[in-house]
Amino acid sequence: MAPKQKGNVDIVAVAKAAKVSPSTVSRTFNHPDLVSPATRKKINRAVQKLGYVRNRAAQMMHGKRSGTIGLVVPTINHAIFAEVIQAFSDAIDQAGFTLLLASHGYDLDREYEMVRKLMEHRVDGVALIGLEHSAATSRLIAQQETPAMAIWNYAEESELPCVGADNRLAGRMAAEHLLELGHRDIGLIFPDTRGNDRAQYRLTSALEALRKKGVFVPEHRMSEAPYSVAQAKQAAIRLFSEDARPTALLCGNDVIAQGALYGAQKCGLRVPEDVSIIGIGDFKGSADIEPGLTTIRIPAETIGSLAGQRFTGYITSDMREQFRLCCGLERVVRGTTSPAA
Amino acid sequence: MAPKQKGNVDIVAVAKAAKVSPSTVSRTFNHPDLVSPATRKKINRAVQKLGYVRNRAAQMMHGKRSGTIGLVVPTINHAIFAEVIQAFSDAIDQAGFTLLLASHGYDLDREYEMVRKLMEHRVDGVALIGLEHSAATSRLIAQQETPAMAIWNYAEESELPCVGADNRLAGRMAAEHLLELGHRDIGLIFPDTRGNDRAQYRLTSALEALRKKGVFVPEHRMSEAPYSVAQAKQAAIRLFSEDARPTALLCGNDVIAQGALYGAQKCGLRVPEDVSIIGIGDFKGSADIEPGLTTIRIPAETIGSLAGQRFTGYITSDMREQFRLCCGLERVVRGTTSPAA
DNA sequence: AAGAATTATGAAAACGTTTGCAATACTATT
DNA sequence: AATAGTATTGCAAACGTTTTCATAATTCTT
Q1: What is the mean pLDDT of chain A?
Q2: DSSP-derived 3-state class of residue B159
Q3: How many CB atoms sit inside 10 A of residue B222's CB?
């Protein structure tokens, strides 16, 4: 059945089989209305028979778009980015694009390498996570005139078009929730903020909101944990084993909060009676933990979809107007916070 | 600073700037040893100055590899696939390849579309999750002679080269652990097995292992839940609210098991005293839940890395020998299982 | 110091498409 | 029936590279 071509079936093989010129075959794909129905049928039959698959690389050489969009993330293996990637992928797929994915492990120099790599493949656009990038990356993007956008973070003053949430606000909202409940002795667990503007923004704004209400967080109440339930659990246990433990924990993201919750359970503490815990993100699963995690919801899926739609729109339209979208946050109060004793 | 070329900087622009021929520029990249150090320096300076970025699509037209590998997964937003994707991506990146990623949402027809789409981009190879694919997909792969491989599942009789674990064994091991602990009344929660050979294999082999020991699972002890903590939690609650509840739950994967655990906690059941729960997978986080989840560990990261290494090796070597790798499983006994009362 | 061997470079063809232009074959108008 | 117009098709150049072959510039032999 399979007609096992020896060489590669290209457009001229199809043309030969259909007894027309290569130009006509090309036109059948790109401007079907310029080809008579009869010829089209002949050609389609030949395409079918030979199993021809279009070669986008060759098309690209004529100024056509490559039909690919690059996405560079810190890591794929991360509840929240996985969700964004999925939504973004679906959205651009909808518009006929294919995703080129690369990760850099929170290393901005590697981010540059990845962007470069993607540009060698002539992606039609490159999307990055966050607003903080190396000067080299920005220069490269500007120089190549490749459309670029930032996902996940929103900032009015952003250079790049962006779709995301206001992480400063997120930090503030989390802090304010705890303050409203009367907490004054608050512990913080955050990831390393270097090269991670999301965490950076959340942390400084949370601290600032607390300070504004006269709450100062001493050094020993602050702990650093990477994105890992296990390590957050350890960090929480350390915080809880101090002589006087904090009455509430503000965590940089939901994974950390989840770890903190397990840490509390491990220490025999009741949540929220003995200690309140709040996260940021509202990851899939945060709602289902027992007790349900109180958190500041960042709509990852919405962000990913919206980013994909806007970006493909931006790329395909000829008059490119910048866009900056801020997706709303939501305080989701579940079972891990309660008024301070 | 940025020399703002009006047109695109291509190899001939560089050649002009360095006052050499395009051929020499090309050679500087592909066969540096054939170019005198002095000329090379001149050229590199020009490249630097103009901000030239190689065009892989154009290279590809000369039979060169595209330097991309396609990966088609059911979904990205899934702890276990995210882990595999990350490891696979890192491994192929190491070998100089870039990842083209597509997802199909457990729809084998869409899988075909995605594979086709990737082939239009002339990926150097395409990796699929699982061994079950539509006839159209297999035909397409054979016809295009694109290297292909299967990830995640291992089977001796697999057509495609594969790197994965024996899911039948995983199901059996889970069942046997429960049997060894003396459980006879066992509930099952599994995802829909259509178009999902992993789940299919696990389920049938678990059932078979149970039957071999004279344990039959009645219809009302079997529940279906998609890949979602929330829905698994609901399914578990349904199972637990029967008149006589099972003494143990065997879950198709760790996410389901996690949901089941929360469900038990919600119902006021103590785990493992009142009910034992075992999962399959050992996802990140499974170790840290309280109590730690007993599970059959599938080494996702190892599978992803190994798959990436082997596949790139396979693609770049000229004498391509098939490979089939079976990654070992491990029973990880933590806190959610105990002997039957 | 002349010829041979080696090294470095350039010219041009090739890769698989798209597209502007020209040519041909129709159809409609008078 | 001749003309003008339109619909369809083909020819050939172009896209940005790589590579073969040929040529020019060195270096080595003797």
Answers
A1: 95
A2: coil
A3: 17
What is the residue range of B45's domain?
11-54
Partner residues linked to B101 by β-bridges: A99, B71
Residues in chain A: 341
Q: B318: which residues sit within 8 A by CB, 6+ positions away?
A: none
Mark whether A282 and A203 lie in a shared domain: yes
A83 touches chain B (CB under 8 A): yes
Q: Does B316 lie in the same domain as B282?
A: no
Sheet holding A294-297, edge to edge: A222-224, A186-190, A248-251, A276-281, A294-297, A330-332
Do A160 and A305 lie in one domain? The reply is yes
Residue B339 lies in a domain: no
Question: How far is the CA of A10 from the CAs of A7, A16, A52, B1, B64, in angstroms?
Answer: 9, 10, 7, 44, 16
Mean pLDDT, to the nearest integer, of B16-45? Answer: 96
DSSP annotation string for A210-250: HHHTT----GGGEEE--S-HHHHHHHHHHHHTSSS--SEEE
CA(B46)–C1'(C18) in Å?
31
| Nucleotide nearest residue A30, measured CA to C1' | C18
Q: A282, A324, A233: which is closest to A80 by C-alpha? A: A282
Locate the chain A residue with the closest alpha carbon to B73.
A86
- Separation in Å: C1 C1' and B37 CA: 30
Co-location of B173 and B160 in the same domain: no
- Tell how strand A186-190 and strand A248-251 pair up: parallel
Considering chain B, what percentage of its residues have pLDDT values greater than 90?
91
What CATH number corresponds to the domain at position B139?
3.40.50.2300
Residue A100 with chain B: CB contacts under 8 Å: 68, 98-101
Q: Which residues of chain B neighbour A69 with C-beta distances below 8 Å?
A: none
Question: CB of B227 within 8 A of CB of B255?
Answer: yes
**In the structure, how far is the CA atom of residue A20 from the C1' atom of nucleotide C15, in angstroms?**
21
Question: Does residue B256 lie in a domain region?
Answer: yes
Identify which of B226, B177, B12, B197 has the alpha carbon closest to the alpha carbon of residue B108: B197
Which amino acid makes up residue A98? Answer: T
Residues of chain B in contact with residue A262, where contact means CB-CB under 8 angstroms, are 288-290
Q: Where do we find the tokens 């999925």?
A: A86
Residue nearest to nucleotide D12 (CA to C1'): A23
Tokens 């540009």 sit at which residue? A119
Written as six digits, the tokens of A211 are 């300070």
Q: If DSSP codes are grouped into helix, strand and coil, which group holds residue B121?
A: coil
Quick one: B188 and B121 in the same domain? no
b/e burial code for range A87-122 (CB count within 10 A of at least 16 → b):
bbbbbbbeeebbbbbbbbebebebbbbbbebbbbbb
Helices A167-180 and A197-212 pack at an angle, to 10 degrees, of 40
What span, in angstroms and rounded, lies between the C-alpha atoms of B278 and A65?
A: 50
B234-258 residue pLDDT tens: 999 999 998 899 999 999 999 999 9
Arithmetic mean of pLDDT over chain B:
95
Chain D positions within 7 A of any protein Cβ atom are 7-12, 14-20
Cβ atoms of A199 and A170 closer than 8 Å = no
Residue A287 burial (C-beta neighbours within 10 Å; 0-12, 13-18, 19+): middle
Determine, yes or no, domain membership for A24.
yes
Q: Is the pLDDT of residue A4 over 60?
A: no
Query: How many domains does chain A contain in total?
Result: 3
**How far is residue A309's CA from residue A289's CA, in Å, rounded to a whole number?**
32
